[in-house]
Amino acid sequence: MKSYIIEGGKKLEGDVKVSGSKNASLPIIASCILNGNITKLYNVPNIRDTQITLKILRLLGCKIKKNSGKIEINSKNMTGKEIPEELMREMRSTVILAGAILGRFKEVTFSYPGGCDIGSRPIDLHLSSFKKLGIQIEEESGFIHCICDKIIGNDINLDFPSVGATENIILASVYAEGTTTITNAAMEPEIVDLANCLNKMGAKVEGAGTNEIKITGVKKLKPISYGIMPDRIEAGTLLCITAATGGNVKLLNVCSEHLVPVIHKLQEAGCNITISKNDIIIKAPRRLKPVEIKTMPYPGFPTDLQQVFGAMLTIAKGTSVIVENIFENRYKYMTELKRMGAKVTIEGKTAVIKGVKKLSCASVQSPDLRGGAALVLAGLTAKGKTKISHIEYILRGYEKLEEKLTKLGASIVLEEGE
Ligand code: UD1
Q1: Element (H, E) at 126
Q2: Is 116 a catalytic residue?
Q3: Amino acid 119: pLDDT
Q4: pLDDT of residue 199 exceeding 80
């Protein structure tokens, strides 16, 4: 078990480069299955989630070369159509591989995905969409077998703009006969990045970034090089940590357009923010002001930043309110924050946070990926030494977090333990 040991109370200062996006890398790595050729990807974060996805691709017969953030995937000789169960359990987005394998081979077998325990996280929208594309689905003993002679384009209306389901439909439809139209599609920037990558290969995906996406089937895709977009959630996390520690930081390699609601809420909380082409400078106020947040699908406030924002608001001057509308179980980190002196009450989707002047150090446990990042923020603001255990969750999604924070003046050490 790995832990972070944090000595809080240091203001973060300096500049830091944001890594490539985790949530864009995963479907884009999956898309490399489709061209049956070589794809060179740049700016891929070296984190547990990308490592697991690449491990699955290798087991399915892809050849992979890695050189820090550059990855070459050769899917020419890939034959595997079954995603190994133990790796499927490691993270939810392995389900994205199903759409890509189906698109290429018209057959895939997988089991229900695992991942962070932040709610029930069903995959009904993925499966019902596959059915609409003419794919037969059989479920037996926890395994899902999908097969068809050909994928046939169709109109699909999603009951909820699910990010994963939108990506899976796109991946499965690239070689379909005819046109697939997704209405009430998710509009996240990571979907635009996936569409841009596929279009560079020669696919025809139109409307990504809006709620109506049209995929016209093509016959062949070509080898390409593609650079992954910056991670907006890592950027948001670093902005909140700077704000909470009273710091002054410049983020490099960041797309401010992807962070509009986050920047607005930080400004409302009293932060001074300067935006230029690929950089954001944030200067924290002496004391943060309380704000109200409601998580929504993009372009609303992202659920993935609810936790770090929640942790930041525990030391604002006044009462903040958060409403979590996307996942039903995303407040576990609050139990840990209470150990550090946070004053929070939770009822259903709503958390009411009464700001305290300072948090105190404690031994806490990371409950999930973003909840773990929230605890890092809390530890960095608290007085004394905080130990965060189970940081494997955090390492799934943040590349070199402790190195980046140390460079900005934080005292944070990764400790290997039993
Ligand atoms: C993606 C992101 C995750 C982010 C989430 C919401 C990746 C790898 N992960 O996850 O970081 O928190 O979007 O922005 O990109 N739902 C169903 N049935 C389904 C699918 C989803 O009911 O078949 C529900 C989920 O339980 C959840 C909501 O829809 O309540 C949003 O899920 P979805 O948008 O699919 O999130 P993910 O793609 O899993």
Answers
A1: helix 124-132
A2: yes
A3: 57
A4: yes
Q: What is the pLDDT of residue 88?
A: 84
In angstroms, what CA-CA distances link 260 with 247, 268, 357?
21, 12, 28
**Residue 350 CA to chain centroid, in angstroms?**
22
Contact 37, 411 (CB under 8 A): no
Q: Write down the pLDDT at residue 120.
A: 59
The residues that bridge with 240 in the sheet, in sequence order, are none
Q: CA 272, CA 379: separation in Å to the nearest integer?
A: 23
pLDDT of 353 strictly over 90: yes
Strand partners, 204: 216
Q: Which helix or strand (DSSP H or E) is residue 273 part of?
A: strand 272-276
Question: 326 near 293, Cβ under 8 Å?
Answer: no
Q: How confident is the model at residue 362 (pLDDT cuts 50, 70, 90)?
A: very high
pLDDT at 110: 93
Among 182, 138, 144, residue whose Cα is nearest residue 163? 182
Q: What is the largest CA-CA distance in the chain?
A: 64
Q: With beta carbons less than 8 A apart as the criterion, state whether 20 and 230 touch.
A: yes
CA dist 207 and 185 (Å) reads 10
Q: Which of 200, 144, 153, 182 is nearest to 32 (CA)?
A: 200
pLDDT at 205 over 90: yes
Closest Cα to atom 17, ligand 1: which residue? Answer: 122
Q: Please tell me the residue having the least CA distance from ligand 1 atom 9.
A: 23
Neighbours of 213 (CB within 10 A): 25
CA-CA-CA-CA torsion sign (253, 228, 234, 262)? positive
Say how far apart CA 59 and CA 386 lie, in whole Å. 40
User: Which residue's CA lies nearest to atom 39 of ligand 1?
Assistant: 164
Burial 380-394 (b: 16+ CB within 10 A, else e): bbbeeebbbbbbebb
Kindly report, residue by residue over 76-129, the tens digit of the pLDDT.
999 999 999 888 888 888 899 999 999 999 999 998 876 556 555 689 999 999
- Choose the catalytic residue: 116, 146, 240, 271: 116
First to last CA, the chain: 5
Q: Which of 148, 32, 154 is nearest to 97 (CA)?
A: 32
Q: Is 160 in the pocket of ligand 1 (CB under 6 A)?
A: yes
Strands, sheet with 319-323, edge to edge from the N-terminal-most edge strand: 292-294, 319-323, 350-354, 343-347
Q: Which amino acid is at 367?
A: P
Mean pLDDT value across the chain: 95
What's the pLDDT at 324?
A: 97
Characterise 322 by phi-psi region: left (phi > 0), alpha (psi -120 to 50), beta (else): beta
